[in-house]
């Protein structure tokens, strides 16, 4: 089924600006065909995509305004014959839109299946930053197009064909699904627009007239640990830890960059301390090896708070969060061989530490965490192993971190979700941050090697996704081990180390491994 956002009658190739108005509608050139096009026979040029690319890279001169509302959502604004189009596009596929008429009122966008003449270029502009994060091929094409734009050169025809083909198959094959139904776009409410619901923190193209700038605190500050510790110095000065407690506060280099997610949690936690319902319970979900646990360590570092951890398993019970069963080293007389001690969870809650609870979706019984509901507020009564009780410290913080996408992950009870002050979902790291992390963790400073390995790793991951090879792991950890192995081999054996560190962990099926080697490694490495 064709996407309602593409192949519109609103624009034809002949109406494009030169030199694009003389391009053929279709090509059989293999360099122009997307990897998502399984037939690999031909690619078509969509004038809507060409126009969107021009707007996307026109920056301040663009007639379509694109703004970033958050890490996962964008808004567009442009003038059409029907009125001023305003729309929001989110990474989860949620789309809202409306038309502002001359009298200032708002009306719904016409059905895009019935009205094929409606110009959807602005929607494609809004999709581009999301799709380049989700699909390596789209990112690679846009990087090529951006290079051409920066050098004031015309866009290469093969990149325009390939991007048109890529978007066509991403949408029609539902690789990226939206909540558009039968051509209907849900209404972007007037209240949302007029009362600040579309406040942005960054303009990516054009000049907004209706969309309003946000004056909220921007978490995308790229603060170093030293700068963040200075920001929270007044708060952390209230703590007076014993010598043995100081050992549980993580230490990072002063120039280590604090993750944006960590800053968001720290600021909400500190700023809400005087509220009736302070923010003290958080959840951070995302793909494995994103850096969630490291982010929690940095959180403890910049707030100067001890950090303890609890790692969940499938057989955990509620009692496992309250006490640990350990060998008794005092074996005099008839002393039992094992004894109960307070768990890290209880220690952190009663002493005012941070506790990270890892992998909560691995617990078989979703009711286990429900049993902790009574301990989610400051001042809650917590039972100790000796039968006595203590109250939850007002500054104790719980951060639940969870990997997503594994078959072994289980649903989390809604009552547990309700206890969270907010939830952060983190998926792909932007390329520049991934490369910075790769350099930091491997101590390899040759940017050419880092870029080479990163690009091949991306192509392997994209190939596996396209072919449905999802049983293994293709995370940044695999990339780091590949680069480290190359380093240890004297910067040799790129191919063999790629097979051992990346491909062998992507799948244990030898035929699938051979497919990846032939389809990616032999072509790009």
Automatic annotation (TrEMBL):
It comes from Eubacterium oxidoreducens. It comes from the Bacteria. This is Uncharacterized protein. Gene3D superfamilies: P-loop containing nucleotide triphosphate hydrolases. InterPro entries: P-loop_NTPase.
